[in-house]
Design a protein that fits this description.
Length: about 260
């Protein structure tokens, strides 16, 4: 009869194999959901066996898991607009100091509701034109987790003043382009100037994942969308789904 130690070792190995296999399956399902640059560790544990971190493939921006269409979101009438809605291509005006400090502080209310919509869609970032408000306003939380509210960022009238020459390529997608994605080249770091909700000017330098989120949302404020940055092959790959969105929208879409 095998010793108890030998039996325990074999059982631990079997448990480890099953756990890693299960984790790998989850990684495949989440291949477009978890940011590679902040690749959250996939962990499985038991009372006697621990496992190392497993890096997952590139993500679909801007979603912490597969994005969803939540329909009616409690606490707001805002909805994520789908391509080719004209608001996604329309000019976005700067927010005035009066809008930030005047009666009702409407911009603060809009930002809070944008977060409600972002979290409901499993997103990590959202720009005002995506919800039909053509103003230079963006919100994001690099974790995409409402419980980590300390990581919430609101940028009013943001401007990128410097881009790094060094770039990298990651898979991106967008809440306004459901069920599609593609490789996008972005600067590795950026320097930014903006205002906060009180109108105070701020300067920041963002790197990596946060820099990519910012650049993606900043594009929206300039009437650009991520598909504009795809390679010719990347665009061809998603064109059938784009055509479906265009047909569903009907006349008046802004391509």
């Amino acid at each position: 009869m095998p010793s108890s130690n030998s039996y325990t070792n074999r059982m631990a190995s079997a448990i480890a194999f099953c756990a890693v296999a299960a984790t790998s399956r989850r990684a495949m399902v989440s291949a477009f959901s978890v940011p590679s640059t902040t690749a959250a560790a996939a962990r499985t544990s038991s009372s006697s066996v621990s496992f190392p971190q497993i890096s997952l493939p590139s993500s679909r921006l801007f979603s912490t898991t597969e994005e969803v269409d939540p329909g009616v979101v409690e606490g707001t009438d805002l909805r994520v607009l789908k391509y080719p809605h004209p608001s996604l291509r329309a000019p976005n005006v700067e927010i005035t100091d009066e809008e930030l400090t005047g009666p009702g502080c409407e911009i603060s209310k809009i930002a809070k509701e944008m977060f409600l919509v972002m979290y409901a869609t499993n997103g990590v970032g959202l720009a005002a034109p995506q919800v039909g408000i053509n103003k230079r306003l963006m919100v994001y939380n690099e974790h995409g987790d409402a419980k980590k509210w300390m990581s919430e960022v609101i940028m009013v009238n943001p401007k990128i003043v410097e881009y790094s020459e060094a770039t990298d390529v990651e898979q991106e997608g967008c809440l306004s382009f459901p069920d599609m994605g593609g490789d996008v080249e972005r600067s590795k770091w950026i320097k930014v100037e903006a205002q906060n909700l009180k109108g105070k000017k701020i300067k920041k330098k963002f790197r990596g994942w946060e820099a990519r989120i910012f650049q993606h949302e900043y594009d929206h404020l300039d009437g650009k969308v991520y598909i504009d940055r795809l390679t010719e092959d990347g665009r061809k790959e998603i064109q059938p789904k784009l055509d479906g969105l265009i047909d569903a929208f009907g006349e008046g879409g802004a391509l």
